[in-house]
């Protein structure tokens, strides 16, 4: 891509100038802002500390539900789930009675910025920790685009991923999918690709394995952020615009004693609408549940015909630990969600409470640390850290999915305008 | 310990001046010298490269057999196995017909330098990767001495280990015993202890998991040595004398196609002295065999009464892949081994050959890389790298177990004398 020539690209109604240098967005999964703040305070992120002094140290909002897939796709498309359609890890289709995993590109309703730029001739590289996001984020990439997951870094091919031999080039053995090293491999591979291929756009999306287990300022969390700091420094030294954000925050979902606090919604609805008549969907559920037991702070509920929705809403809103209950219409408007992929009710828990179905379906007996999770409004604030100063338009509501909009403007040295 | 006052300590007949600054010996398990040489050539060990330019870049010999336990105990005691008694991971006691694991302190026949110094009031810290060495190396430590393994870093107590909460202080989750991270935890914990407690003597003993799987200059090996380089720099910056050595080297035990080359000795002797009459002992065997399949290049054989030892010796010496066969008497003299803990014959394989018992007892079918191992004379040369210049006495035969003798002299600013 000729970095200077050409009009800005318009993707999903937003304008992206063609960048004059690489734009690298790092999505630190589950990066509640206290994580980097504590690591900086403890002297473990010297590069980031200096970067924030000269760059931009902002906070923005993630999209609801504050889960991984909706937010990664929002960052990739620049728009909320109402537009791109991905509102969780899966949804329930009442017409067929089936639960549908939302990791197939067919379910994506909007092009990504990556697809648009790569089809316009730009070099694009997308690296994820877990493979579940790879197909969605790589959807529509032109030939030559790089897209792979660290989880499957031992199975890469030029034809499928645009790159191969990543373990060899980085010197990693294939990490466990439940490890900090999975994220480190994303960072190491990203730096290698940045140095060698100098892509116009790069996206590095990590896993929240550490954040689900370790609180901000804890030794393991601090060590993870110290590791990230070294890679941020390398990205900066390679001349890229760096935007660091998160897909969602993270909070303890436990009481002061460390015991999980969970409202079991399926049991609650079964008592009121009959066994199994209502269908409680926990869109955090995915094939990787070891670190959160499928417990988050967001649920959506499909009610049986004839149920008294407003009465149920009112009663549920008064349950201890429940923060907000909205109708489908209210939720889709307030949170910009696709109305056809949520239930009749949307339920959001309070900061330290998670939502479950029934106890038997959430085994956290093997947890050695208190439950930490996300999904609610209390995990909506995320960092937006940039290695350049950022002047937002007056009144701009900053979102994590502004990352490429900010990055492309900075890389083209153009002011940010609505 | 008063660093200046006091006469030198004599341990096992060797004189160790009292050090005026910490002496840190790092034993990189299986560190064939090509590992650090290749990593330096690839620009991945900038500190070590500079250290060797101003310090000492030496090569010495390890003790035979070139295995982990004998050499770690030689480094710890300053003397060969003939004196300290540990000549492998286990030995066969013909009197009882039992195989005896050599990880119990009762089997150690000489005090360690650590025990002698700690009993004289010095601060000593010993950190190993695997737990198998911990009890031997910690034998005789006075109260307050620090001794623990990374493998059991989640089970430490002040009473047992002289330290606790190592995972918390370093920010590690407990690593797999088969990982590079197990060694990294040793280095990280060692640096923390050095900074906080400033021990007079410290010993950091790693695992050869990486070296058994990855050749010098390979990406994974290079990344491992790049990691070590960062910790060496930190040890040096903390003002310690640093001596880096190895317990043994490492070579491929395979042909050009990558297939393991193994002489199966039990089968060979069974054909000649009758089934099970001879007893082939492979002292590399230990509870951790995943990475070498219990295949090394050294074996010792107990023959039945009446066997024609010299005829068997002559015939075996002519077998393809066998380098040297010695009688018990020859081996104990040449290699300074305890004659009562070896068999009637000692067998050493050539560089690219390993010795086994019978195929069924060595499962390497799951190996994804060609077999790499050690035990022979071809793995006897090891690096001796020091962050100060070293002037050895004329004609001195440098051994890895000179490490503390060198380190204590340098730390006391005394010339090395025999």
TrEMBL record, chains A, B:
Enzyme class, first EC level, given as a word: hydrolase
Pfam families, per the entry: Phosphodiest
Protein's name according to its UniProt entry: Phosphonoacetate hydrolase
The organism's place on the tree of life at top rank: Bacteria
Keyword Acyltransferase: no
NCBIfam families: hydr_PhnA
Organism from which the protein derives: Streptomyces antnestii
InterPro entries referenced in this protein's UniProt entry, alphabetically: Alkaline_phosphatase_core_sf (IPR017850), Phosphodiest/P_Trfase (IPR002591), Phosphonoacetate_hydro (IPR012710), Phosphonoacetate_hydro_insert (IPR023116)
GO molecular function, one term: phosphonoacetate hydrolase activity
Keywords of this entry: Hydrolase
Enzyme Commission number(s) from the entry: 3.11.1.2
